[in-house]
Structure formats: structure tokens, C-alpha cells
Amino acid sequence: MTISTSATNSRHDPAGATANISWQQAVRNAVRDPGELCRLLALPDEYAAVAMRAGASFPLFAPREFIARMRPGDPRDPLLLQVLPAVSELETSEGFTPDPVNDGAAAVGPGLLHKYQGRALMVTTGACAVHCRYCFRRHYPYGSAPRSLDEWQPALEELAADCSIHEVLLSGGDPLSLTDRWLGRLAEQLAGIEHIRRLRIHTRLPIVVPQRICEELLNWLCGTRLVPVVVVHVNHPAEIDSAVAKALGRLIDAGVPVLNQAVLLRDINDSADVLAELCERLVDLRVMPYYLHQLDRVSGAAHFEVPVDVGRRLVAQLHARLPGYAVPRYVQEVAGRTSKVPL
Asked: Which of 53, 88, 107, 255 has its CA 20 to 30 A from that of 164?
């Protein structure tokens, strides 16, 4: 299946985004200045001025590979809205907090979270290849998380001491912003803990910088006894171009199950047509639509929220249009609950 014209019309290639460069260079080349982003997309200067003010505490960061899929001249482009700081982020909204999923209460050690039975999460880094404006960890205290493998030893000892944990999730930030050498060494140490059976990676990097799926990554990801699972994050079909499709295919061809989780976002994917196109595109690429998340109510993201009753209607329409395996589960993370809450 090809991407529909709605996902490809008027896309462009800013400043050599599709050049054959390494993923590290692609991250270094990412756009950090709202003025530059607005120039690349032929947007008025006032958008840059607002973005500079709104992004003072959580700045713009967007790879050129991702920007290349945006429509020039369209301030409502669904990919642009995910990364360009907006004045709405400065508003205080009731019920929106810095830690909406209560990560702080789930911490069992520096960088180690244990919320759900049988699995634990390692916040491996605060670095990410894109700053999504709705990120639920945009206020997370990453400075307190371990950095070196030596600093991770207490967390590894905690995991080794808890025989109920069978799966470890690497998250962040984005764990794939770390080097393959470092990640490979961490995977080996986790594989040395007998009761851990699966290693799950939560990442947006294969979507925003598809070069990240390289031979070195596949070697460590598939090189231990642990069963690897990768969960990517795509919200809109326009995020998937041929390079992303190829990157996802490399993972799947290597035997790695790939799932997608999306966030329901106002004016971005709160449409049955958009969600159906996204789900079908994913299935055609052998990626399973996994979750459609209700927005985590993080400070600065209230303008993205879609009412739950609207989300339920959208999912009902998806069930009427798509096979059951192509419909993601509509869920919400509720602080203190021991699993995602189906909506």
C-alpha cells in the first residue's frame, strides 16, 4: 500500500535531509531554532517568535528527516504541530501536572521504575531525537538518572533480586539515542539475569531518523538470549515515508516484533479517516497497532487533549472499518493503577 496523497502532497526535502548520512550526524543536524524551521517551511516570522517564547524551558528539536515530511506553508501540518512550541503551552490548566503518570512514586531506585507486575522500566537517558510537545516526561528529572553502566549497577542488582520480573523496558528520553556499544553491554548484563526473558525498547528514533536501524543495532538487539520487542511511536500516516518503511522492515526481517503506540491528539489524528489510514499503513508494513493512548495530562499539553467520548466514537468507527487485529486498544495510564485502563 502506498501512502495516500493526503500524506505526501507538497512534501519537500529541507537542506539535504535525505542525504546518505549516519544517524548520529542526522541527530547533530536536527533543527533547534524555530526561525530556521519556519524558514524551511515558508512560515511567517511570527510563528518563530511565539515558538521561541513557548519553548524556553522545553526547546524545539526536530530532525530534518522528519521536517522533510511536512507541508511547506501550512501552519496546521499534523507533523509540525507535534514539534513546534505553541503559546498554549504557557497556559496553566486544571488537572495538568508535571508528573501525570506518577513516575516518581514508581521509582524503586535511580532510573528504575516498577509499576506493573512482571516488568520494570529503565529510564536510560533524557536525550531524544525529537521533542514532542505532548511528551509526558517533558518535566522528568533526568539529571538524577544513572549515566554510566557502573551507575546502573544498583538497578541491575534490584532487577536480579526480584524473580517476578520477566521483562525489562528501555525507555527515556529515547534509549536508541545511546550508542550501540553501550546498549549492547547493557543488554548482555540484563541477559545475565536468569529470570529476565524479554527486552522491550520504546523508541521514536526509527520514525524520525530511520538511519538508526543499522547493522550494529540489530547485532546487539538480536544477539542475546532475550526475546527483543520494539515499540515505535507513530501518530499520523504522513510520518511514514519510504525510508521509515524500510527501517521498520529491517527490524521485522531480523525477527523483531514491532508494535506501534499512538497518542490521540487534537487536530492531528482525531479523525477516523486519519486513524484508519495509519492503522492500515502499519499493518501493511507488518507493524501491529498496539495502543491508542488518551493524552497523559502533562503540564503544557492541554491543547492536545481530545475528550474520551470522542475517542470512544473514533475507535468504534475503526472497528466498523477495519479487521480487529488492525484496531489499537484505546487506553489511559492512570497513576497508581497496575495496568493500562481500557477506555
From this structure: 255
The strand pair at 329-332 and 341-342 is best described as antiparallel
Tell me the domains of the chain and their CATH numbers: 5-90 (no CATH), 103-342 (3.20.20.70)
Q: pLDDT tens-digit profile of 166-211?
A: 999 999 999 999 999 999 999 999 999 999 999 999 999 999 999 9
The backbone torsions φ and ψ at residue 190, rounded to the nearest 5 degrees and listed phi first, read: -65, -40
Angstrom CA distances, 147 to 151, 177, 187, stand at 6, 13, 15
CB 5 within 8 A of CB 38: no
**Using alpha carbons only, how large is the chain's radius of gyration in Å?**
19
Separation CA 312–CA 292 (nearest Å): 11
By 3-state DSSP, what share of the chain in percent is helix, strand and coil, each rounded to 5? 40, 15, 45
